[in-house]
Design goal:
13 strands
Length: 210
């Protein structure tokens, strides 16, 4: 326990000044990932907003201010940081990165923000197919699972027929594919995958016999 406290005290030195933090423009982005706390436990997380210098994460398990965190985020990759503030549904952390890494993060965040603002229809650019095995399971963040039928499928998302309608923006798992609900329709919901999938991945997941 003493060792954890010592590590946190040392990590706090990475926190930037208030003036430095103001130089980072935060962007609201809706991306998912996993994080590892100092005790080496891993937990799913969702980015609330992010800049090249800090990030606010929504997650079920939080550490303590000063604790070092490693996160793997969709579209962004691996980041390291130190918890600076506990939030009602998660925490905020400073990102520890080189200038080159910060420049890369800035470019990634600009692309993600523009994609969100323009509502780029990625799913329309990908051919939609009806899988050979349309039956699957939709799992919500709290662990509840529902059987569903896939109406059509593309590299970036799926339309599923299901009796329940999770709120738009809710994180879900369709089989083993992480994504979020983006639209409701009469008999179900449309899901956008967290990352654009490979054809062979979809074939393995949804075109198996059974």
């Amino acid at each position: 326990m003493q060792q954890r406290q010592t590590t946190r005290s040392a990590a706090i030195n990475y926190t930037p000044s208030a003036a430095e933090r103001r130089n980072f423009q935060r962007v609201r982005v809706n991306i998912y990932g996993r994080l590892m706390l100092e005790d080496r436990t891993e937990h799913p997380c969702q980015v609330v907003d992010m800049s090249p210098g800090n990030v606010a994460l929504r997650c079920n398990e939080v550490g303590e201010p000063g604790e070092k965190v490693i996160a793997y985020l969709d579209h962004v990759g691996r980041i390291e940081g130190v918890i600076t503030r506990i939030l009602p549904e998660g925490f905020a952390m400073t990102i520890i990165a080189s200038d080159r890494k910060r420049d890369k993060l800035a470019a990634q965040l600009t692309w993600l923000a523009n994609k969100h603002e323009l509502a780029l229809p990625e799913d329309r650019r990908h051919e939609r197919i009806a899988p050979r095995n349309p039956m699957s399971t939709l799992q919500l963040g709290d662990g509840r699972q529902y059987r569903c039928r896939i109406i059509d499928l593309s590299l970036s998302g799926a339309a599923v027929e299901i009796d329940v309608k999770p709120a738009i923006g809710v994180q879900v798992m369709l089989g083993t594919m992480r994504g979020q609900v983006v639209r409701h329709f009469e008999d179900g919901v449309a899901i956008e995958f967290a990352v654009v999938q490979r054809p062979e991945t979809l074939d393995s997941e949804f075109n198996r016999g059974g």
